[in-house]
Every structure is written in C-alpha cells, then in structure tokens.
C-alpha cells in the first residue's frame, strides 16, 4: 500500500477516503480468490469510496464477489502472497500498510463476519476487555482499569448484566454473541467501524437490533463501513450505498436513489433494485456480452 504525497487537514475531508485500491492473491494464495479474481488474479480493481463522520456507508454486492478483501485491505491484513496498492486516507492522513496495521483495533476496528471469531475457551468479559497495553507495568495497569470500566459501560449500554462476564461464547444466544463481537470492536473507542456481513444467520428481530446498534454508533459522529449482500438491510440502515461489482465500486448513491431505478446509473445497481421484494424479486442475470446485459 502506498500513501499519497499530499496531506489534507482532517476537518476538510471525509473520515475515510479510498482511491484506486487494487488487491490480488499471488502464488499459493491465489486459490483463496476463487471466482472473485480476474484472469490476472485481481480481486479489487481501481476501487474508490469514502465514509464521512456521522455516516453509515453500505458496500453492497453479491456473496463471494470479494467484498471481504476490502475489509482486510483497510485493516492492513495482508499476507505474503497478497499484492495491495492504492491510496487510503484516514482523518485526512495518507496511510501505508504499516500505518493501517497500527490503527487496527484503535482508530479503525473490525466487526468480523462470524461469531466463530470469539475464543471458545475465554470468558466473554475477558474477551471484550482485551489485552492491556503499555510500555511499563504502570501503564498496563492503568489500561487494564480503563478496559474494565469500558467493558462494564458497554455491557450496561447493551443490556448485559454482570453475570454475562463469566459466560463462554457457547452459552450466548446468537444475538448476544453478535453484540459481544461489536463490543470487542468498541472497547478501544474507534472512530471507524468496518463491519463484514454483520447479520448472517440471524432472525429478523436480531437483524434489526444489529442494524440499530450500527446506526447508533454512526449517529455519535463516528463512521461505519458495512459490507453486506443484503440490499434490504442496507437500505433500512445506511445513509449511502456503494454498489460493488466486478471488484470495484461502480456507483455511490444516497439511499433515496433506490426509490427510482432511473436514478441509478449502473445496470447492476438497477438489477439490485429489481431484486427487491416490492419490485418483483427479479433475479439478476446477464448474457455473454457482459455487464450491459444485467436487467
């Protein structure tokens, strides 16, 4: 990842700005890309998007299209066999891969896709608190106390009583486990949440609750980038939709643009509109001619 030469003041630009992002798997890792990669192995191709403070941006695209690679790139999660380059600015500052990694869990936090990311052998309270940081014993002691206070404040905010601290992940309901994942991300008080498919396998009540949690975080003046294949969830929750197709964001529009397909420029965006239940749930299809055949 290479940063830009210019450095805009944080107050003059979006919280997150991504320009010309490319990502590919090479060597033995190439099989991980599956059908998402093109002939040259690229999964992300000239992708650009932005997230402002107080905003929830939903990146919407088909399952298996490579959207999760975007989350990994923004968190600096690059393997040896992955090639990533482009420009990423956070709070106006251009960041390279090491700077993104340094922000992970601090300025930018990930809410992962699966509750299997929780350690099955660690009690929930300890997982949310995380590992205290500091160069000295005194600093680590202060951070440990801060984390304990923050964890209990989050438990209170999300309706968990103190007894939940001593439970293991398998003792939680699906909705509780999802909230624990969110609290693990929030304990460091980040400015931006990157949420990778935050609601798979949940019933509608829990989906709505998870959406409200993300919306509430954005409404505090922070930012949320929600990666999802669920266009209905995105339209209910987000401020803007970034339509992900063929490894890039082909269109960024306000949610209101999905009220009328004539407001949508790209054929895949219009295909998403037609796939909504109120519009007949027409399954997107295309011919050999490519994206222009989406209908």
What does this molecule look like?
- This protein has 295 residues and is α/β, with parallel strands linked by helices.
- Helix content is 29%, strand content 22%.
- It has 8 helices and 10 strands.
- The strands form 2 sheets. The chain has a 6-stranded mixed β-sheet with strand order 6-7-8-3-9-10, with helices on both faces. A 4-stranded antiparallel β-sheet has the order 2-1-4-5.
- It is globular and about 55 Å long.
- The protein starts with 15 loop residues before the first strand and ends in a 20-residue tail after the last helix.
SSE map:
Elements: E1 16-25, E2 42-51, E3 56-60, H1 67-74, E4 82-90, E5 93-95, H2 97-103, E6 108-111, H3 124-129, H4 137-157, H5 174-186, E7 192-196, H6 204-218, E8 223-228, H7 231-237, E9 240-245, E10 248-254, H8 267-275
Parallel strand pairs: 3-8, 3-9, 6-7, 7-8
Antiparallel strand pairs: 1-2, 1-4, 4-5, 9-10
Order of helices and strands: EEEHEEHEHHHEHEHEEH
**Strand portion:** 15-25%
Q: Report the C-alpha radius of gyration, rounded.
A: 20 Å
- Mean pLDDT value: 84
Main sheet characteristics: 6 strands, mixed
| Assembly category | single chain
Helix fraction by DSSP (H/I, runs of at least 4): 25-40%
Query: Could you say which structural class the secondary elements and strand pairing correspond to?
Result: alpha/beta
Cα distance spanning the termini? 36 Å
Biggest sheet, spatial arrangement of strands: 6-7-8-3-9-10
Number of strands: 10
Report low-confidence residues grouped into runs of 5 or more: 1-11, 286-295
Overall spatial form: globular
User: What is the tally of helical segments?
Assistant: 8
């Amino acid at each position: 990842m290479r940063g830009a030469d210019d450095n805009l003041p944080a107050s003059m630009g979006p919280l997150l700005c991504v320009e010309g992002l490319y990502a590919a798997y090479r060597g033995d890792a190439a099989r991980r890309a599956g059908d998402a990669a093109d002939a040259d192995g690229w999964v992300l191709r000239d992708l650009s998007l932005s997230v402002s403070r107080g905003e929830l941006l939903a990146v919407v695209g088909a399952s298996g299209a490579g959207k999760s690679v975007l989350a990994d790139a923004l968190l600096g999660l690059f393997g040896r066999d992955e090639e990533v380059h482009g420009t990423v600015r956070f709070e106006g500052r251009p960041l390279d891969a090491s700077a993104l990694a340094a922000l992970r869990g601090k300025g930018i936090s990930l809410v992962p896709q699966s509750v299997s990311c929780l350690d099955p052998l660690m009690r929930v309270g300890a997982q949310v608190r995380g590992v205290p940081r500091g160069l000295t014993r005194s600093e680590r002691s202060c951070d440990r106390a801060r984390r304990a206070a923050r964890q209990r404040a989050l438990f209170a905010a999300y309706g968990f009583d103190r007894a939940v601290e001593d439970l293991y992940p398998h003792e939680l309901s699906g909705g509780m486990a999802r909230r624990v994942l969110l609290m693990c991300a929030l304990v460091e008080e980040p400015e931006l949440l990157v949420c990778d498919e935050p609601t798979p396998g949940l019933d509608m009540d829990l989906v709505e609750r998870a959406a409200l949690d993300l919306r509430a975080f954005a409404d505090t003046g922070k930012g949320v980038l929600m990666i999802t294949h669920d266009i209905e969830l995105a339209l209910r929750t987000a401020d803007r939709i970034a339509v992900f197709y063929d490894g890039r964001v082909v269109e960024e529009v306000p949610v209101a643009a999905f009220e009328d397909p004539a407001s949508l420029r790209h054929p895949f965006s219009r295909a998403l509109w037609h796939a909504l239940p109120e519009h007949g749930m027409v399954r997107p299809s295309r011919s050999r001619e490519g994206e222009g055949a989406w209908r």
